[in-house]
Amino acid sequence: MTTLTHSSDTLTRDALAVLQPGFRGTTAPDWLLRRIGEGLTSVGLFGRNITSPAQLTALTAQLRVERDDVLVAIDEEGGDVTRLEVRDGSSFPGNYALGSVDDVDLTRAVARELGGRLAACGVNLNWAPSADVNSDVNNPVIGVRSFGADPALVSRHTAAYVEGLQSAGVAACTKHFPGHGDTAVDSHHALPRIDVDFDTLHARELAPFRSAIAAGSKSVMSAHILLSALDPNRPATLSPQIVTGLLREELGFDGLIVTDGIEMQAIASTYGIERGSVLAIAAGVDAICVGGGLADEETVLRLRDALVDAVREGELPEERLADAAARVRALADWTLRVRGASGPGAAVQEGTAPGIGSTGNGTGSGIGLVAARRALRVTGTIEPLQEAPYVASFTPVANIAVGDETPWGVAAELTALLPGTETGTYGGENTAAEVLAAAGQRRIVAVVRDIHRHPWMAAVLDGIRAARPDTAVVEMGVNHAEPTGSPHIATYGAARVCGRAAAEALTGRGA
User: Fold this and answer.
1) Which of 30, 79, 306, 342 is at a distance of 20 to 30 A from 508, taking alpha carbons?
2) DSSP assignment of 456-503, as one string?
3) CB–CB of 224/288 below 8 Å?
C-alpha cells in the first residue's frame, strides 16, 4: 500500500484539482465558487452557460475572484460545434472547410481570431482542435469536425490551428487521442472499436498528434475508443499503454492530458464514472472532463471522493494524483503568465476580434466569412435566383457533440438577401410529393447534410429532382456523394458563415 505523505487536506485539494466540471446557469453557483476555494482549478463551459460576450466576460471574472489562475475551458471548435454562438451559428467554418481550402496560413489566422474572441471573454483553454483523420466517411460523430481524410493534410492544419489558437493566449487541447476518425460508433453512446494494425495507426491516426506536439499543444484529449493493436482490453482513456506508454513516453508529450467527457456511455455504462476516473488518472491522464451531461455538485463530490478513497486504499498511487494535479496547476500558471504578459485584450493583435458573433449579420468581411467563401465548391452553372425560393432542409438527427440547439442551413441567409423566401424542414418520414406541394411554383433549394449516410434523404431528393430538374442542392456535410442538382454547392460544413457563402453564390450577390 502507498504510504501517505500528504495531509488529508492536500489529498482532497489534489483530487479537486484534476476535475474539469461543468454547471448549469449563466452565473457561477455558490457550490462551484466554494469548491474553487477548496482547490478546484478548472471549470468547463457549455452553450447553456453563454448568452452574450458581456455575460461570458462577467462569468469568467466571477470565477477569477475565487482563483485568478482558474482554467476556464470550452468546447469551441467553430463550424458545427460552437458554444460561443450556439443560438446563432458560428462565425467560423469548421475544420473540414479549412482542410478543403488547404491554406495553412488561413487556418492559423482563423484559429487566432477564434482564440482572440475566447481570450477577450476570459476563456483560456479550448478543447480543440480535432486532429482526427476522418478515414471512415460514415463516421457518425467526427465528419466535418475533421480537416479531412489525408493524414498529411490533417497534420499540417492541426499544427497551424494549435499555433494560431495559442498565439492568442488560449491553450489548445488536441483531440481525440489516438484518433477517432475510423469509427462507426459514437462514443457518446457506446464504445467504438478500431481494428487496424499497428503500422496503420502510426502512419494515419498518430501523425496529426505528432504534429500537434511538435507545434507545442499545451494539452491533449484522450478518446474513449478501443484500439486492439495498442490495448485489446481497455479504451484509450483508461489504458496505461496508450496514455503513458504511447503518448507520454513514445511521442514525448509533456503537457496536460485530459479525458473526453467521462460521463459518455463508452465509459459510464461499462466502468461507471467513479471507477473510470480512478482508472484514467492511474493510466496517466491528468484531468477529468465532466459536465456535458452531469453538471452538479454531487457529481464533483462523487469523483473527488472516489479519487481520495482510491489513494487511501492503495489503488491509486498518491504520487500519480499529485503529479496530475501539478500538471493542471502548471497549465493554469501558463495561462496566467500569458495573460499578464499580454495585458488586457493584447492577445488579439489584428483588430478584428471583438466578442461573440461579430459578423452576426453575415455582411462583414471577417476572416471566418472569407474562409467560408473560399471553401465553397460549385458543380454546374448557377443561374442566380431572382425571386424568393422555397428552401427544403433535410435534417438528420444531430450527434451530441454538435447538439440540436444551433441553427444551420441557408434559409435565414437567403431570406436576408431575398425577402419572402419560404422554408420547410423534412425528415425520414416525409416524401418528395410533400416538398413539391409546399414549394408550389417557387424554385427549390434542397439543403442536405451527409446525404451519402442517409438513404431516405437521397430518395426524397431524387423524387424532387425528377419533377423539378432545376432544383439547386446545397450539401452542408461531408461531400462524399456524387454531385446532383442544378447547381450543386458544397459548403464543407454547416456554420452560419457557410450558409451565408452558399446564399451569396445562389443569388450572385457575394463579395
Assistant:
1) 79
2) HHHHHHHHHHHH-TT-EEEE-S---SPP-SSSEEE-SS--HHHHHHHH
3) no
Active site residue 132: no
Parallel, antiparallel, or unpaired: how do β-strands 288-289 and 226-227 relate? unpaired
Average of per-residue pLDDT across 113-140: 94
d(CA 379, CA 394): 20
User: Is this structure's pTM higher than 0.90?
Assistant: yes
Cα dihedral 24, 497, 127, 204 sign: positive
CA 127/CA 94 separation, integer angstroms: 14
Length of the chain: 511
- Cα separation, 82 vs 79, in Å, equals 7
Q: What's the grid cell of residue 414?
A: 437567403
Neighbours of 427 (CB within 10 A): 14
Q: 3-state SS of 303-322?
A: HHHHHHHHHHCCCCCHHHHH
Question: In the predicted model, is pLDDT for residue 357 greater than 70?
Answer: no
Cell of 140: 457518425
Largest CA distance in the chain: 79
* 188 belongs to the catalytic site: yes
User: Among 283, 168, 150, which Cα is nearest to 211's?
Assistant: 150
Tens-digit pLDDT profile for residues 324-342: 999 999 999 999 999 876 6
Q: Which residues contact 9 (CB under 8 A, 6 or more apart)?
A: none
With a cut of 80, say whether residue 172 has pLDDT above it: yes
CA 387 to CA 407: how far, in whole Å? 24
Q: pLDDT tens digits, residue range 245-283?
A: 999 999 999 999 999 999 988 899 999 999 999 999 999
Least reliable range by pLDDT among 96-110, 118-132, 287-301, 354-368 = 354-368
What is the predicted pLDDT for the residue at 486?
A: 87
CA distance 149 to 136: 8
* 177 vs 30: CA distance, rounded Å: 34
Cα–Cα distance for residue pair 249/262, rounded to 1 Å: 24
Radius of gyration for the alpha carbons in the chain, expressed in angstroms and rounded? 23
Catalytic residue among 132, 186, 260, 450, which? 260
CA 347/CA 59 separation, integer angstroms: 20
**Which neighbouring-strand residues pair with 406?**
none
pLDDT class of 182 with cuts at 50, 70, 90: confident
Across residues 84-93, what is the average pLDDT?
93
Catalytic residue among 157, 176, 180, 188: 188
Distance CA 452, CA 238 (A): 34
Grid cell at residue 379: 458543380
